[in-house]
Write a structure and sequence with these properties.
Layout: H1 5-18, E1 22-26, H2 32-38, E2 47-52, H3 56-63, H4 67-73, H5 78-90, E3 96-102, E4 117-124, E5 130-135, H6 141-161
Helix pairs in contact: 1-6
Amino acid sequence: MSPHEDLARQVLAACDRQGIMLATAESCTGGMIAAALTDIPGSSSVVDRGFVTYSNEAKQEMLGVTPATLDAHGAVSRETALEMAAGALARSRAGIAVAVTGVAGPGGGSADKPVGLVWFGVAKKGEEPEAECRRFEDLGRDHIRQETVRTALDLMLAKLTAR
């Protein structure tokens, strides 16, 4: 089981209570958010699909992220996270979608986008998508990816339980 089992169960239960399905759009986590959710028996009643869009081409083809967004802001950006989340929502039967794009390391970072920088997008039907940024301490690739999964689940749960 995932180290995020309790949080994943809460997300699934919140979706179930609202009668909606969920989708994930993942870059730096490579499907770990979907795995944390689908590790739980019965999750198929709530999880619609997960998009693993590691390359820019996949982000464009599968989620509709525009080349202009990627050219102007890069894959690791607020704008890309928002388009990923909106694209996952539009290309699924989900009522809520979460997207993650970041620099998990050990390489690939830069001065303005260091290792540990992750952008999150959350889109819920009938609402404007929202984005948040986190800078996780560079304690290794696994740490950054696990913190990204935890934060994505937290953000989905907060969106699902907001009044």
